[in-house]
Amino acid sequence: MDSQNKEQDSVDWEERIFSDVIKINDYPSLEKGEEQTHVGMKHIEENVRKIQKTVKKEYKYSKPRFENGDTLFARITPCLENGKTAFVDILDEGEAATGSTEFLVMSATEDVLPKFVYYTARRPDVRQFAIKRMTGSSGRQRVPTDVFDNISIKIPPLEEQEKIVGFLDAIDTKIETNDRIIELCDSISQTIFSYWFESFSPYDEFKDTEEGDIPQEFSVAEIGDVCSFEYGEKLTKDEREGDEYPVYGSNGITGWHKESLIDGPGIIVGRKGVNFGSINLEMGDFWPIDTTFYIEPNNESELFYVYHLLRTVPFDHLGSDSAVPGLNRNVAEDQDIALPPEKARREFSNLVRPFHKKSHELRSENNTLSGLRDTILPKLLTGKIRLNV
């Protein structure tokens, strides 16, 4: 597929009112009192097309309802600003589902393709138009449904929509494929850890300890015997420059900076806030801020063993009762563990290292693809770039 890179007016595109060509909250019918598939706001990730999870809930009252091919558009702050918009493709044929009351449901008419609706909802200018017209109290502002009666968009012919959607869909499909591989790599690594060090399947001889029956070769130890929890360093948003290295807070990557504090690979543990106890692995260099701990393994060759070990510890249940929940590093390091021999720890780390390396490569590729998609999307959907087959 070739593109004409020069900007050109979309003179053959028809200008239409948004709500005339994209239906807003035109719900399918659904029987009340029955258990139905439900999608909550937490089941959609920021700037991710795919719905991540569903649950079953009894349908009791008038909630947003939708089918495959619809788009879920977060209408409340800060979810809209953060990019929560998803395309529905996870339901059975003919199935209708319910969703959070904070979704607007966008559906295609005969003039537009379903995925063209989704990518139109991702347009920065459309989102900003909606954000500026939010109503309600500070912190709980919402987009009124009739906002989309007051914005016009240019609609290309269906044949050109297919080209645009095909280009963007190929990028998102590749990202989703990479995500599945990343998830598989993680699952394999954690399964091996569980097989070796939790169910003790390779071992035949056991001994009775305060930690229960453990293999003869193991010992009862504490987390502090294999690693230490070190404080991250403050780096305010105003101090951050550039985009070379990830900045980690308790809830994962919170930004980027031109400098790193810690050489990767490394482990980050949430220290303060609602996400205290969260565990992240960063394969490259990074900056952990002061709401986190970074982990110093006693032996660098055992880093991946330490990472998977920490994931089995319920740190989120070990927090203090202060106004700001948090994890005390002494409490964390004092947690008892069944410690395998050093040789087994090294062998495990060496075994799973390729899986983590592959995941890192795929995440880097996804970042590149996402950047490409987000750069070209508004130009494709406004006709500034036209595609030829």
* Major sheet summary line: 4 strands, antiparallel
Architecture of the largest domain, CATH level 2?
A: Alpha-Beta Complex
Strand content: 15-25%
Low-pLDDT stretches = 1-7
Question: Whole-number average pLDDT?
Answer: 92
Helix-strand category = alpha+beta
**How would you write the strand order of the largest sheet?**
3-10-7-8
CATH superfamily heading of the largest domain:
DNA methylase specificity domains
Question: Outline, from the CA principal axes?
Answer: elongated
How many distinct domains? Answer: 2
Number of strands: 23
Distance between the termini: 5 Å
Specify the helix fraction band: 25-40%
Radius of gyration: 25 Å
Counting DSSP H or I runs of 4 or more residues, the number of helices is 7
Provide the succession of SSEs: EEHEEEEEEEEHHEHEEEEEEEEEEHHEHE
Task: Specify the CATH class of the largest domain.
Answer: Alpha Beta
